[in-house]
Amino acid sequence: MEKTKKEKAIAVLKSFETGDRRAIQEWVAGEYVPHYPTIPNGKYALLEFFDQLQQMEIKLNIVRAIEDGDFIILHSEYTAEFTGPLIVFDIFRFEDGKIVEHWSNSQEEIKETVSGHPMIDGPTEITDLDKTEVNKALLKKLVEDVFIGGDYDKMSSFFGDDHYIQHNPRFADGLSGLLKGLEEMAKQGKEMKFTKNSMILGEGNFVLAASVGEFGGEHVAFYDLFRVENGKMAEHWDVIETILPPDQWKNKNGKF
Fold first, then answer.
1. Exposed/middle/buried for 189, CB within 10 Å: 0-12, 13-18, 19+?
2. How far apart are CA 84 and CA 59, in angstroms?
3. Same domain, 87 and 160
4. Which one-letter DSSP state was computed for residue 176?
5. Structural domain contains residue 101
6. Most buried pick, 47, 99, 161, 253, via CB within 10 A?
């Protein structure tokens, strides 16, 4: 029986933990395009990288799997011999049943968060499938009007009073906690600036925005996952990663 795209993406990612190359050999296309700097293009470059990673004892905890057409988003916790725990978003694009393109964004996991919520815990059940496009449109407007446009007076229209659960380690719960945290960071010279959105993806009550901008003067990629409830943003997870300069990449694909 043919596996679903979610099952294939999970199997490919988990293969880095299990050491079983078959998922990559079967479900990754020969012309595989990675949007991260570690490896050149192509499935065989991925397999060579796979062999290198087997020396690092990678462990994976895949917490969320979200499907939007040909795209699969996996939200995971990685641990490895060479690093502490990482929170990672992987986005896979499929064509003809195989992975042809892959985006990834990661950040060191911070255990002591301002809100008290771990960076990756919380609900995982996908509901409200009939509201997928409405919820994606809501996120698109939030990103364009507030994150990029800077119109923070509109923030309250996207959040239900102050019952907003925050998993970004820098902010307290609630819209008030978010606004206070942004103000304090700006005073410290660590202002977040979104300049361009590259993707809005989602399934039901979970929607993800992948964007480019600056944080503390560094060129970064922002991945923001929201859980929507009753037409408002109810919960938020994110990862912020510095984008390396092009001369440090092993391919020419760019972050997006």
1. exposed
2. 11
3. no
4. H
5. yes
6. 99
Dist CA 194 CA 222 (whole Å):
8
Greatest CA span in the chain, whole angstroms? 57
Same domain? For 177 and 225 the reply is: yes
Mean pLDDT in runs of 10 for the chain (256 residues)? 94 94 96 95 95 86 98 95 89 98 97 96 98 98 95 89 91 92 86 95 98 94 97 97 95 95
What is the pLDDT, as a whole number, of residue 128? 98
Domain end (from 111, 139, 156): 111
CATH number of the domain encompassing residue 219? 3.10.450.50
d(CA 183, CA 64): 31
The encoded tokens of residue 180 equal 């206070």
- The reply to whether 28 and 71 lie within a common domain is yes
Provide the pLDDT for residue 189. 81
* Cβ contact 138:124 at 8 Å: no
For residue 85, give its domain range.
5-111
- The contacts of residue 63 (CB under 8 Å, 6+ apart) are 75, 76, 77, 120, 121, 124
pLDDT of 157 reads 92
